[in-house]
């Protein structure tokens, strides 16, 4: 039996005159993810057919689950658009895919409307021919079947399949510009990155690190998280910008009233993110905030913090429950890294009673207590950018006691291109 993978675009076919821009990017992403496998492609208006070696089936399916912009895909069996040939193939397919007796029906979709029978007539004709041959495995139930044999009739062939596997959906990464994701070591921000990728946004990661005030393990956490996120990105790589924050962090703790430390810290972070984004043609800032989840995510706090920037702030998780966020983090394999007990600068030295209804006036007063502008300029000037790929499995803990030592040691390792010089 000739097998192939049928990939469907879903809502991309509704994009009108811009449709080709979207589908071209999806095709490019598919080819990137499958480039090391022995496959060939057949491209059509609203689908892609991927021909593969039988022992690569699981690899192909796993890779397709990393491509944004794909609505669904199916393992399909191909034959000529002839009732007898379809029925003969259906018997083989049932014998291969159905293990124990189950309920069943046939559904037909005529892509080629010139076929001489209606969809219902084709389904009935095929069912009539196959039932006597596979009655040990199937019995008809047209209202609530456990299995549906799908037949798609096209101009030159018929495709048969049982399962339609839901893919990531959304839009192909790269079609929606770039966003700068403020990445902590927690659960929420990696999920926010993934959600924006699904909407076609190419994401760069911006992490504020306060070593040695925070452990070097906190940086390793974000490297490991970045590695998981890189799987979804074009060419399987993602930029992680490590922003030195120690000196700013110390000044905040030294000068700002305890209840306002988190508010001022976040305002400075947003100011720095905006400056970096504008200097690098990045169109938006992304974060993992969810309304009222913590003190810094009340509406009052959100208003005060984002008032320092005029870039769009995208919050894909804004109305999500924590359980929903955790579910997604497990699916994208970031959860178990995120919960490792190594604090970053946002979770260490947390005030006992953080303000939940801050004001802009009070925030400006707190910021006037010290001159943070030279510190910001120095921090932005000394950002370290890592190019993270799925196969970058170096543990920086093995190369130094602080981040600077570790990165300097890694620069001397041959054949390592993941530190942007």
Mean pLDDT, rounded to whole units?
Answer: 90
Distance N terminus to C terminus?
A: 52 Å
The backbone outline, from C-alpha atoms, is: elongated
SSE order: EHEEHEHEHEEEEEHEHEHHEHEHHHHEH
The CATH first-level class of the largest domain comes to Alpha Beta
**In percent, how much strand structure appears in the residues?**
15-25%
Description:
- There is one protein chain.
- By secondary structure, the chain is α/β, with parallel strands linked by helices.
- The protein has 2 domains: 2-166, 2-Layer Sandwich (VC0802-like); 178-411, Rossmann fold (3-Layer(aba) Sandwich).
- The protein has 14 helices and 15 strands.
- The chain has helices at residues 19-33, 57-64, 83-97, 119-130, 188-198, 216-230, 246-255, 261-279, 299-306, 322-331, 335-338, 360-367, 373-381, 403-411; strands at residues 2-8, 39-43, 47-52, 72-79, 102-110, 138-140, 147-153, 158-161, 165-166, 178-182, 202-209, 237-244, 284-286, 313-314, 384-389.
- The strands form 2 sheets. Strands 1, 2, 3, 4, 5, 6, 7, 8 and 9 form a 9-stranded mixed beta sheet that branches. Strands 14-13-10-11-12-15 form a 6-stranded mixed beta sheet, with helices on both faces.
- Helix 5 links the parallel strand 10 and strand 11.
- It is elongated, with a radius of gyration of 27 Å.
- The mean pLDDT is 90.
